[in-house]
Structures are given as structure tokens and as C-alpha cells.
Write a structure and sequence with these properties.
Number of helices: 10
Structural class: alpha/beta
Distance between the termini: 63 Å
CATH architecture of the largest domain: 3-Layer(aba) Sandwich
Radius of gyration: 24 Å
Strand content: 15-25%
CATH class of the largest domain: Alpha Beta
Strand order of the largest sheet: 2-3-1-4-10-11
Amino acid sequence: MDLTQEIRRLEDEIRRTPYNKATEHHIGRLKAKLAKLKEELERQRQKKSRGIGFSIKKEGDASVFLIGFPSVGKSTLLNALTNARSEVADYDFTTARPVPGMLEYKGARIQIVDVPGLVEGASRGRGRGREVLSFVRNADLIVIVTDVFNIDKIDLIKKELYEAGIRLDQKPPDVIIKKRDRGGIKINSTVPLSIGEKTIVEILKENRIHNAEVIIREDITIDRLIDAVMGNRVYIPSITVVNKIDLYRPELPDDVIPISAKEGINLDLLVERIYQKFDFIRIYLKPPGKKPDFNEPLVMRKGCTVADVCMKLHREMIKDFRYARVWGRSVRYQGQRVGLDHVLEDGDVLTIYA
């Protein structure tokens, strides 16, 4: 039995097995084995594949990838939001490679990338799906694009992304696994757990972890525990938009943005939502002995440190760094001397001494 057949067998067995406390550890073991086999199958496919993957140079303060099935208006949306000129036509697969453009908004430079269209089965390699999905893992934000005639495709797109190890709008599992040489598996949790210790042990052993200290800080599910063990998932925020509402206006959930890229309807709402997703903050640089430059703030992400600013200005700056002074909400007193690990806040004024 080859890997593909074994994967199908396990998927069928999981579907047939009723979930309850008595079968929980068995299902956990099956799912852990299934995740390993899928990873092994992907490695084999990558070795056999002679195709060249996609790549672009990341520019700006953050990157947004437009993901969707063909002919839903991704290229039109890119052209409407940025200075790009992505080819637009009334047939499928017009975009054969990623096309980047730059959106400038509230001082932030946001790279928008039109990604080649997905098809059902992309996570299994259909339509260069593996190359596309591997490329998408580099996004800072995913915008799922469909149109009023293909609203049902939203769940299919999310399924393909999930199968490719892309977790939308989730945080990484709050689980720490410290492998040891001996002593078996010791489980410590800071919250009550819905799954049993036997299930946790089965999942770990299926991944050849027989001695470890496991610290769990959330009510973990089987799938999220497997994600934590595998360690190769990416966690990316997302926005969903439905295009072409100038042709037909369907009822949509509140978290879906209706737009018309062609007519410019609700594009200002989409841009503002993209901006809000990044939690941008503005840092004003003040050269030593001079006044701060309030006209051109340095746009950073919330939670950034002085070290992050140094890296953005010049990679060599950290090597020569001595100290910094900060004026603003992140310090106890104005002009406070800080180090590289100091966390900055919106509106801070920063002087770096090197």
C-alpha cells in the first residue's frame, strides 16, 4: 500500500469512528499518523517536482496576498488598490505568476500581491497548487477574494489553505514540548483539559516523542496539539471579500466585505480594514542634537523593539548600537535611556546612539 492509499484509509477510518471519550485516544493517534504521512508525501512530491517555485522581493512595511479561484477579479482589485498593472481578461488563469503592487496609506507602504488562481485540489498539487500555497505561506495577511457568483468557494479556499498547513486567524498553540533523554512523558497544564492524558501521550509517541516535559496553557484540541507537535504550521490573519457587487448584492456575513473592484465600491473600507489588521504604530526619529522629524514617521508593527527599528534602518546598526533615548508613552520619564529590547509604542520619539 503506497502513501496515498494509506492516507485515504486513515481518513476513512477517522470518518467512520464515532468520537467519544472511549475512542478519543485512538482518533488522536490516527490523526497524528495521518499528519506525518501527509508530510512525508509532500516531501516525496517536492523531490520529484522539477517545477520552479514562485518568489518576489518583499518590500514595504507588510505584505498582503490576494488568494482566490480564477476570474473572481483579483487582478482588477490589485490594479484598483495599487500602482500595479496586472493583466485582466475574461478567461481563467490570466495571472500565471505573482504580480506585486504598492499601496500607500496613512504613512504605511503595504505590498499587495496578486497570486495565481487556486483550484480545488491545490493542496494535493493540482494547477501548480503546491507552488502557489508554498508561496502564500510568506504572507503577512491573506485576503480571500471571491465574487457574487462563487460565494460557496470561500470554504473550499480555506480548506485548501488548511491542508497546506496555513492556519487562518489563529494563534499558535500555547504548548511547550521539552524533549528529554529519559523519564517518560510528563504533562503539566495550567487550565482544565478536554482531552485526556492518554490521548496526548498517544499523539506524542506517534511522533517518536517518548521522553518529554509538556506544558499546556490552553484547552487544547487534538488537531491543535498535532499542529504544536509538527511545528511546521504558519499562522496568518485574513480578510474575506466578495467582489462584483455592482452586478448582484447577496446577503453576506458581517465579517465579509462586499466590494466592486471595477466600480470602486467599498475599496476605502477594505483599505482601512487591511491597515487595522497590522496594528501599525508610528515612530518618529530624532537625530542626536536635532529636532524630531514629524513629517515622515517610521511605520512599525505593534510590539516592536528598538532592535527591530535598528534592523529596519540598517542591518549593521545593531552591531554598532550603544544605547537609545525615548520620549513618549513607552517610558517612565521623557528622554529615558533604553536598550535594544525596549518595546516601543505609537507616537514615541527615538534617538539611537551608535
